Amino acid sequence: MTEKREYTGEYAEQTLYIPGPTEVRDDVLDAMCEPMFGHRMDQMTDLYTTVVEDTKTFLGTDNDVIVLTASGTEFMESAILNLVDEDVLVTTCGSFSERQANVAERLGKTVDTLEYEWGQAVKPGDVRDALEASETDYDVVTCVMNESSTGVRNPIEEIGDVVADYPETLFVVDAVSALGGDYVDIDEHDIDVIFTSVQKAFAMPPGLAVCVVSDDAYEREVESESASWYGGFQRSLDYYDRKGQTHSTPAIPIMLAYRKQMKHMLEEGHQARDQRHREMAEYTRDWAREHFDVFPEAGYESQTVSCIENTPGLDVAAVIEDVSEEYDMAFSNGYGSTLGGRTFRIGHMGEHTVESIEALTDAIEDVAGL
Ligand SMILES: Cc1ncc(COP(=O)(O)O)c(C=O)c1O
To answer: Keywords for this entry (predicted)?
Structure first.
């Protein structure tokens, strides 16, 4: 039984290096403190159309954008509800991609999995083989872009090119923890649905999920007999077309923060943001190789979350605690019981820089006596 623990407000302010939520700029936090307005007022249309169109510009996509009050998991579920009549091929290589399989199973779909050991990446050739070998046309293939549990960056561009050869099959990408910090050309690689949560590489307060939807995905839902209500693509996109608003009351303060942060992201630019994240990832991996090892398969390391193998056998939990107490910095242990003390993870996403990541690695060195 969980007992109440009163929230006191008296907590040390920690710099976040966990794989989300991550650091949020002060002016973005301040943007949330506006007097409230109604979600059917003109002001809301101004806000939501700005948010949607700026996101399209930032991502460089002609596909449609939905910004919904939810966490990213909402689109893991609604993409299946909207697009899968019966068969889905889920590629799995860690906890979040396994969650995608679990979600589809819970929704009663016929789920085939293409499974990889945790730490390995999904290979485009295997996806082609699985599509060739299947007797049914899969409605959807899913892939996680950035397996936050293992620090693997899957080659979704090449996988998208493979799936594009199967016109009846749509490609759905979970890009939570990657989008905004790792460039992807959505339209070029025929990605029908790609979604993220804003508390990751978008560096916003949590509470909104973003989904980019192709015309094919929209049409598939329109033609299908059932779909998600709340996460239905058609409902959100038609409402946007007619009114420039969301179908139900959004988390307005977080949308105000989104507007502010997206302006910063546009100013930096998608390619420059990608480059900054690449530099942070390279720095972190070089540091990791000096003292530890890098967990994911070589050549598939994430640009936003480094999963580091605890080769010296440090007491990871103790190091995390000491860094937190002495330096007010928070980083993550390995994921779940599988990777618990065997690995630890550093989130280098959002507004972080090589310098801010260096401050953390210096703190770890100090505390662990490296
Ligand atoms: C790859 C991936 N997918 C999905 C999720 C779930 O996102 P949310 O907590 O926003 O629902 C996460 C969260 O860390 C993630 O890293």
So the answer is: Aminotransferase, Pyridoxal phosphate, Transferase
Q: Which amino acid is at 327?
A: Y
Q: Are 352 and 21 in contact (CB under 8 A)?
A: no
Question: Using CA positions, which residue lies closest to atom 16 of ligand 1?
Answer: 148
Q: Is residue 125 part of a domain?
A: yes
Q: Is the CB of 74 under 6 A from ligand 1?
A: no
How remote is the CA of residue 179 from the centroid of ligand 1, in Å?
12
Q: How far is the CA of 89 from the centre of ligand 1 (A)?
A: 19
How does pLDDT run across 21-43, given as a tens digit for each residue?
A: 999 999 999 999 999 999 999 99
Q: Which residues of the chain have pLDDT under 70?
A: none
Amino acid at 280: M
Cα 174 to ligand 1 centre (Å): 8
pLDDT tens profile 331-341: 999 998 888 88
Do residue 297 and residue 342 come from a single domain?
Answer: yes
* CB 100 near ligand 1, within 6 Å: no
Q: Could you tell me if 192 and 334 lie in one domain?
A: no
Q: Which of 68, 73, 150 to mutate to test the pocket of ligand 1 (most atoms within 8 A of CB)?
A: 73
CATH number assigned to the domain comprising residue 285: 3.90.1150.10
pLDDT at 161: 98
The pLDDT score that the predictor gives to residue 341 is 84
Ligand 1 neighbour 73 (Cβ under 6 A): yes
pLDDT score for 336: 86
Dist CA 48 CA 104 (whole Å): 30
Contacts with 227 (C-beta within 8 Å, 6 or more apart), sequence order:
78, 81, 82, 221, 233, 234
Tokens in use for 96? 């979040």
Query: According to the model, what pLDDT value does residue 189 have?
Result: 98
Q: How far is the CA of 343 from the centre of ligand 1 (A)?
A: 19
Q: Is 148 in the pocket of ligand 1 (CB under 6 A)?
A: yes
Neighbours of 328 (CB within 10 A): 12
The reply to whether omega before 21 is within 30° of 0 (cis) is: yes
What's the CA-to-centroid distance between 96 and ligand 1, angstroms?
A: 7
User: Using CA atoms, how far apart are residues 260 and 281, in angstroms rounded to an integer?
Assistant: 26
3 domain residue, yes or no: no
Amino acid at 34: E
